[in-house]
């Protein structure tokens, strides 16, 4: 059977977080790669995973794991595309005959970027589980990289042909029944190295999982076109089976559900909650939702089943900007959703963006003010990054507010994404003004006397103390 090595591009913790690595954010397992590995193992192939981010390793560490592998799959996100290409180059220098395939959002949206230098043989377009299995089967049958390209049989691939032209094979349909995919191959991952920030979870280990894929909403800053704006789910039983596995096999004290929109199908959410309670699972968990995806009955069920936190992507406090980004939610609806969640006894993480396409300083100030009005328990202000393939990336390039110069070719996004050097600055705003607004957002939210008093009043144990300490250190670090 084929031997496959799946790799997250290696980088040190300092490179990954750039500023304040000691107090930096979460290191999460690469579930996408783990799903691919699980499917490959299901069909009898030998698989290794090297998570270079969690390991904090060097490129040579990944190369040493080749040992006659037939296929190397590299995760290629825009944030770390430069390091992924360096890794592919080193692998090809070690073994020119190994098939190197790139996957993930960046490889989907700009495949030419990773294929043009001929370090990658293929770019995987769409979901990768079945495509990797078919590649492994072809290698088993003795087919070469040239054979695979010439046959054009395997769906869901892009590659450079013999005349250096970009060629796509037929699109691969999305997997309709997600329960057909085995649970992620966490046994191949260094699970002891993954952690959430203390602000996200005061209980470690807090392990992550997914119960669904995709989101049907048209937000213009988002990558979700990768899933063709569809929404597919695991069954409630399978979802709770995975929660139980994380608790019993991996010692999870808390579980983070990373679906784009966990609460979209309310009946399914209620079934999951009932299954959790029937099994007596007794583990706290959190999820991500839109504010128009909730109601009082569902929130009550979620709380009774252990849901402690919901993360809401508010994005903006400007009604104008909510329309620009096609959020399809109003501020009044968001206010109502926050109140319902608080009344149900569930804490809230509120996420906002600054420096959006077409945003003004006035819009940003409205966002900061709205965050304080909504008063979530934890807040995050992200500087918008123009990821290729998104509607806002195209709009910014077309109107000249973004040059279109591929920032990912020479730098990793963490070098830019915070205070030092924003990648995108909206028209009519200076870089210095944007950086100042970002600092102001955190300072004005977290250093309010009302907020500080509330946090100290809610201390119940040592885990809460660690969470507060970590959060305030992060704020101080951001200020320096």
TrEMBL record:
Its cofactor is [4Fe-4S] cluster. Gene3D superfamilies: Cobalamin-binding domain, tm_1862 like domain. Coiled coil: none annotated. Keywords: Iron, Iron-sulfur, Metal-binding, Methyltransferase, S-adenosyl-L-methionine, Transferase. Residues 15-146 form the B12-binding domain. GO terms for biological process: methylation. InterPro entries: BchE-like, Cobalamin-bd, Elp3/MiaA/NifB-like_rSAM, Methyltransferase_Class_B, rSAM, rSAM_horseshoe, rSAM_sf. One of its GO terms (cellular component) is cytosol. One of its GO terms (molecular function) is cobalamin binding. It comes from the Bacteria. Residues 201-420 form the Radical SAM core domain. PANTHER family: ANAEROBIC MAGNESIUM-PROTOPORPHYRIN IX MONOMETHYL ESTER CYCLASE-RELATED, BLL1977 PROTEIN. This is Methyltransferase. It comes from Candidatus Daviesbacteria bacterium GW2011_GWF2_38_6.
